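Re: that chain you flagged

S.,

Sorry for the slow reply, it's been a week of failed gels. I finally had a moment to sit down with the sequence you sent. For the record, here it is as I used it:
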Amino acid sequence: MGNQLSSSLPEDWCTVDMVNRYTFCPRLYHLMYVEGRWEENSYTLEGKALHRRVDRIDQLLPEMADSEKPATDPAGDDPPEIARSVSLADEDLGLMGKLDLVSCDPEGGEAIPVETKRGRVPAVPLRTYPPERAQLMAQALLLRKHGYRSEHGYVYFVGSRTRVRVDFDEELERQTRATIQAVRDGRSATEMPDPLEDSPKCWGCSLCGICLPDETRELRASANGKNADVGSDPRRLYPARDRATPFYVQEQGARIGKTGERLTVIKDGESIGETRLIDTSQVVLFGNVQISAQAMHLLMDKGLPIVHFSTGAWFHGLSHGMGIENAYSRAAQYAAAADPRQCSRFTLPLVHAKAANQRALILRNGSGEAKDRCVAAMAAHLKTLDPTTDSGAPLSPDWLLGWEGQAASYYFAAFSSMLKTGELPDFDFTTRNRRPPKDPVNALLSFTYALLVKECLVALWSEGLDPWWGLYHRPRHGRPALALDFMEPFRPIIADSVVITAINTGMVKPRDFETNSNGCAMKPAAKKALLRAWEQRLDQIYTHPEFGYRCSWRTILRIQARLLVRLLRGDIPTLPWPVVR
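Prediction finished late last night. Pasting the structure tokens below so you have them in one place:
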């Protein structure tokens, strides 16, 4: 929404809607019109529905009456002319807008703008809020530019079925002109304005999950060694769970098409599955699955990626639309990747969090002497790396890889202590192997790691970052290095946890695998069972280790990607990684 409007404007112009957004919250304006971010919620959808009649057809502003000609109705009893969806512009102000409704009196030279808003009349002294008054005043400036006299307007509140008068006095005009100039100046800004402080405006804002106002303020305060001054703990201003989830298709020979806003899966002329687009966050294809051009175009238009895997879950690539058209985040990413100090500052807490989560998983699920040895060894190992180190020469990536590898050796030596195999020796685990995996446990681990890379890649791409250019893993052709960076702390608490659950609860069984001297492959039954366990894990509600509110693991992944952008752009000084206890 915001990027479409701002991209069609001259660089130093603004719209009436921008004036409204900036008055409401400068950070919201920046996200919408500078960075091109937008998300719908029930309030924005209701507002769109209210404006469908207004936006149905564009009308012209009536021409002013010629003062030299006699009036057609000397008594002045003609009803006012009503014009809807009127587009106007003022080159001097650098302002343009589409007015919902204008009540015009061409004979008397007066025009009264009327703005429609959802909800009821607010219980405040002026019965309107500053953004609504600024929006009407900006419309009045456009009407005056076109020769009309405009001294007041109305806000029509649908919930109350009431019009509230707004008088255009000198102070409102002065403030609105200043806001117009601030909006025009802000279009070229590269730094995001500060978030609002414990503001009730954040409740109901469709971009609160992208803005992260309380989280930003807490991380800034924590870095300064003081409590976040946000009035209370961070508020969870967004849903605990995503309504939309991935749509997996692994039936070989199937074809995906579209019917309206619905995806359909057909094989041999019969429908074998379908999903509504509103319930879909991404489409994941395994092996020989076709997708029509019409379905691809629809998904790209909606900003939904298509992820391509081989039958054996090798990641092939991603099909997507334009995505976020903002170069500043990628520029900051590339600059950070070229700075060894920034890379070290990013990587230290990353690998430390991964090892801490590995130890926590063993502590929770392991048993016997193997568990005790691993827990003690990893506790000592964690003390050899301070994740807050920010002085002296940065640690080399090779040293950090070695430190991470040592932690992994302790962890996988005790991994079998978490598996309740009983009479299922096929699930015995001795060591991590891959390409191809040699046993069922390693096959499950490889599959879940591929799914985790996919989730991280989509999360990073959705925030406008380059998943192929890492800060820890060295960039290499065809390797999503930043996604590999990003997934490290989540390997044990998401991917490994899914494998342990699938084996210990009997969701997968030895008969679901095919093993020979060349390796071990999962049969379709194992993949379906593991995908079910995977989605259950990502949908599981967990208390966020840093912010204290409850949300799903899929939401935590998305929030972490957004915080990474904030770190790279300098909006927050540090990026803590989730560590479970």
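What I noticed first: Confidence is low (pLDDT under 50) at residues 1-6, 67-75.

Talk soon,
D.
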